[in-house]
Amino acid sequence: MSVCSALLSRRAAGGVCRSLCAVPPSLIHIRSARLAEPGTRRSEEEPLWEETGNLPFSRAKIGSFIQERPVLKNPFLEDALLRGYLRRHLPHEAAFSDLCAFGERVANEVDEWGRECEITPPRLVHFDPWGRRVDHIVTSSAWKRMKDLSAQEGLVAIGYERSFGEWSRVYQMSKLYIFSPSSGLYTCPLAMTDGAAKVIQSIGVSWPVDEAYSRLTTRQPERFWTSGQWMTERQGGSDVGSGTETVAAPQADGSYKLHGFKWFTSATDADMTLTLAREQDRSGATTPGSRGLSLFYAEVSRGEDGRLKGIEVQRLKDKLGTRQMPTAELLLDGLQAHRISEEGRGVASIANMLTITRIHNSISAAAAMRRVVQLAGDYATRRTAFGKLLKDHPLHMQTLARMEVETRGAFLLVMDVCRLLGREESGVATELDAHLLRLLTPVVKLYTGKQAVAVVSEGLESFGGQGYIEDTGLPGLLRDAQVLSIWEGTTNVLSLDVLRCVARSSGMVLHAFFTHAKSLLAGASSVSSLSPAVTAVDAALSELKDFVQVAATREPGYLELAARDLAFSLARIYTGALLIDHASWKEASSSDTYAALRWCEQDLCPVATQQARRCYDPNTAPLDAALVYDRPVQG
Ligand code: MFK
């Protein structure tokens, strides 16, 4: 007989059940109870504590109500927009059945691994038991399973197999979109792995990186490698041109030894890395600035003594989020490496990697929004307050609908950038496509990063206090969203990148923007239900054009102050055009139309609004500084 059933039958026999169930038991009076001395036995005459209702130990009564938890369902089947988008652009049974099966796996298996990654974060073991320095980054078994899964599912490989031609990137990113919020942040190493494969492909798949390329893009788990992207040093992760101190000392065999300190290296358990360093000449001198930086390839390996070759892991970072993933400070102390860019072309060569990681970042942002909206929507069907389910409270539904609109906008924007990337990689991109891809990559990254934080934060609130409780898994979503606007270029750095590509293309990227946005609107001109949205986007395009014309005549500082608002305007206008375009598709739903209309009700061109308020005038910068430090304006 088990302990449980023994207890149950004893209670029944002794009438405990009767005394506990018939009338509400009196409070247990601890002080009036006479306790037996430790080690003595209670005399036979003494009544049982249970019989008197004076249980010395008893479960507290906590009531019978237990709230049903939100349930994660197949993220592919649950996402009407994703399925609609693919039905429109990639109507292939093979892609659908793969995404459906993967969605099932994510909901029923992978999501738990992601949770395990969160509660079993990596740790660094500096020394073995005998004092030998080993610098082992110990990761959870779930983290390792994520690596195998990523290879098997082709999460990087799909982008290079190109089975669906120009739509292959859309297919790959759809899979990552389904995977991301359950991945335990494994999407981070995958982003860099994809970026490294892209860089290698763009410079040529030959020695010394041919083996690496085949491992980065394989579907065989036992061969699969991930890559790091070690760019950030102590002096800066944004201004890498002046912040990079790492030097590359040429060796007789044509390779290099790297010496430096990398301050933020993400997913540091990678098998290889691409990194920037300054090549030394014979006298040991280097060239300052970006012109002195070259791109290097290095494998991360161990010697027979178990030590990392040429690397010491200084410590793991203690981060707000992304705790599932090791982020380390690394001392490069003679790391063997190969230069894979022309001398001094490091930044330009790693830019391909930045394009890919920024797109991955945007996918993760849209996916985080989608996940919280799905969970909040499900919860609203299970949670009752003020006499009815949350889903029957119009104000609650309005809040979720606003989150849904943001999520739809983010999804279409990032998928359009994936479409452009796919076109470029399969050799069908027009000049207009190429310009759009260059302009929209920083735009989508910076805009979705901000949206994700806002939407996920709102999402947590929609669970009330439970959204703030760690083991619901919800707070982790917010922590992990916060990084999306920081790494891979902050909002301001990327806003300046937008200005840079406008200037370097002599405005051609903006010309492509206007041309394509107009053509999206033209396709919807006959759909009367969309006309308020079309009018709003059209008006915003005119305002933007006026802004550009005025700004072109002003001093450089004017544009710099306008950079963030300009980037936001580009994002909102283009997203509005995409929502309209999707809603004008013959199989679009009434929700597609409603989402487009709602999106276009906001200020689509904040840069024009702020310009009218003279926010970029020359006196603004000193006034801003005076406000921040609350001092009188100097001079
Ligand atoms: C879920 C997803 C997870 C992702 C996880 C990744 C985790 C990894 C964590 C990190 O590594 S965080 C560190 C990320 N660091 C950055 O993103 C750097 C941010 N800073 C910038 O992007 C700056 O704008 C930049 C360093 C590029 C500025 O450097 P420079 O030297 O002032 O650039 P410059 O002179 O404008 O451009 C040099 C060349 O690069 C030019 O080529 P050309 O010489 O041929 O004209 C530029 O056109 C090219 N270039 C620069 N940015 C580009 C670009 N090309 C294409 N796209 C870009 N965005």
From TrEMBL:
Pfam families: ACDH-11_C (PF22217), Acyl-CoA_dh_1 (PF00441), Acyl-CoA_dh_M (PF02770), AidB_N (PF18158). The keyword Amino-acid biosynthesis does not apply. Residues 508-629 form the Acyl-CoA dehydrogenase 11-like C-terminal domain. Its cofactor is FAD. It comes from the Eukaryota. The keyword Flavoprotein applies. Residues 229-333 form the Acyl-CoA oxidase/dehydrogenase middle domain. Belongs to the acyl-CoA dehydrogenase family. This is Acyl-CoA dehydrogenase family member 11. It comes from Dissostichus eleginoides.
